[in-house]
Write a structure and sequence with these properties.
The protein is of the alpha+beta class and 518 residues long. The protein has eleven helices and 25 strands.
């Protein structure tokens, strides 16, 4: 009996414990549900909906926005910034130059809202429950914020890009400036480095400056990109390769004018590698309209007046300077008579109709041409890259043989051109002396440290002998008339001997072949 009673009591106690544990778990679950519901409501109202209020003691640009919604705070901050926009004075500086942008230079737009919305989440980002537990403390702290005026300046990027375009510059390589009329014909231009604006850094500095006020001065951040050219090496890279001088001291002024006029076209000329230059194309037509005068020219072995006379001395002086500079001459012709100002086979006859001097720059770098004419001499200088160490170039003229003349030719004055001087048969007037001709060659010589390394033939010319011309009157002598003895001595055909040849060679060593200037 006692045993049954004991078992019944134990069963009753066990049921009581079960009932008590169930109530405990029910109360725990209920409490957690309520807490979670409150938390979800807080999260939905203050985070998801975006209706959170700013904490107390929060300021934006000095304006108290504590307890305001995002929309309310945005409105007061934007209004204040637009009112203060007129006070903006942004000065950008680089060296001694400045650019100033005032508030009135900018259009307006509104990028304040996303910034204010972000500031409103201060203290609410991160672990939700941690923020929830610290919310009272954060509300007491508050914070001061600044919004940059760039948030209301619509066209600030365009304004800054405009200034950047004035500042930035492309690189310009260092170079030599050719000034042929200066005492020093070459001036070194050191070029310029490329200047680039560090735009990201500049915009960041502007944003930071306008974050704390309306006035700012900012040094434009620059990136310089330079070249690696050795300026001293560049300065010494061009030397005078050659010069050639001829004399026109005894020429008349009209002839001098023509020579100067022609060479003016070449003074300061820069000929690039591979470029071809024509003398006739460069000088153009030699006409009075172009400034040329009448002077002696050679026509058929006879000197006559013609517009542009003397230009051949300009082309010849240039030709010899080109040879000595070792520049390729593609086309050149000799005169019908030798020139007095250069040795045989070193003249360069030009005529707009049929003869030209053409050359091409065969060097790796440009050549530069300088011409000068004073009252006595004509000079052409060629500048360019250095010769190889110890190398020099020279020219040599060689008389191959004399071409004998046929003496005088007597011509009747049938047209009566000389009746004021001769009229009757047996009266003579010399028009032209006979002239011997020459077969000649010219050579280009290459020396190394004074030793001849190579010699090449560049010309083989024939200057044809010229007959003398003596005019005779055509009228018959009247009976009883005596004609005075003529002082014209007729010249017989030339006989060339070894002695004659040697005499001519000796003469050519000291003077050029002709006493006349074509």
């Amino acid at each position: 009996m006692k045993k049954e009673k004991k078992e019944k009591q134990e069963k009753l106690n066990k049921n009581k414990k079960k009932k008590k544990g169930g109530i405990f778990w029910f109360l725990a679950v209920s409490t957690m549900s309520v807490t979670l519901l409150i938390a979800c409501q807080f999260f939905f109202e203050n985070v998801v909906t975006g209706k959170e209020k700013f904490f107390e003691n929060t300021r934006i640009n000095g304006i108290d926005v504590g307890g305001m919604s995002v929309a309310e705070a945005e409105n007061v901050v934007l209004t204040n910034m637009l009112e203060s926009k007129k006070d903006i004075e942004l000065e950008l500086a680089l060296n001694d130059k400045t650019w100033t942008l005032n508030g009135n230079d900018f259009e307006v737009y509104n990028k304040v809202q996303p910034v204010v919305a972000k500031l409103s989440r201060y203290g609410r980002d991160g672990n939700f429950f941690q923020n929830l537990s610290r919310s009272k403390k954060i509300r007491k702290e508050g914070k001061d914020f600044q919004v940059s005026y760039t948030c209301v300046l619509a066209n600030i990027n365009d304004k800054i890009d405009g200034i950047i375009s004035e500042v930035e510059q492309e690189a310009r390589a260092a170079s030599l400036i050719f000034e042929p009329n200066s005492e020093e014909p070459f001036r070194l231009d050191e070029g310029q480095r490329a200047l680039l604006v560090n735009r990201d850094k500049l915009m960041s500095e502007i944003d930071q400056a306008l974050l704390v006020g309306t006035k700012a001065r900012i040094e434009i951040p620059i990136i310089e990109i330079g070249d690696q050219i050795d300026l001293e090496e560049l300065k010494n890279s061009v030397i005078k390769r050659s010069e050639f001088v001829t004399s026109y001291e005894k020429s008349k002024e009209d002839r001098k004018n023509n020579i100067r006029k022609a060479l003016e076209n070449f003074n300061g000329m820069i000929v690039e590698p591979g470029q071809t230059v024509s003398f006739n194309e460069t000088t153009g037509a030699r006409t009075e309209e172009a400034g040329y005068s009448n002077a002696h020219i050679i026509v058929g072995g006879v000197y006559v007046d013609g517009v542009g006379g003397g230009v051949c001395q300009a082309s010849t002086t240039l030709y010899n300077a080109l040879l000595l500079a070792d520049v390729d001459v593609l086309s050149v012709n000799h005169h019908s008579l030798p020139a007095s100002y250069v040795p045989l086979s070193l003249d360069a006859m030009v005529s707009g109709d049929y003869s030209d001097l053409v050359f091409q720059n065969n060097l790796e770098n440009p050549i530069y041409i300088k011409t000068t004419c004073d009252n006595r001499n004509v000079k052409v200088e060629i500048f360019g890259q250095k010769f190889d160490e110890g190398e020099t170039v020279s020219v040599r003229s060689e008389l191959v043989k004399i071409l004998p003349h046929n003496g005088d030719k007597i011509v009747k004055d049938q047209k009566g051109e000389y009746t004021n001087k001769i009229l009757y048969k047996g009266e003579y007037l010399r028009i032209k002396y006979p002239r011997e001709g020459y077969e000649s060659k010219a050579y280009l010589q290459y020396f190394k440290d004074g030793q001849l390394l190579n010699e090449k033939e560049i010309r083989h010319d024939f200057y044809q002998a010229q007959d003398g011309v003596v005019m005779e009157g055509v009228e018959d002598i009247v009976d009883g008339m005596t004609i005075p003895a003529s002082d014209v001595k007729l010249i017989k055909p030339q006989k060339v001997t070894d002695e004659t040849t040697q005499n001519v060679k000796n003469r050519l060593k000291t003077t050029n072949p002709s006493e006349f200037n074509p």
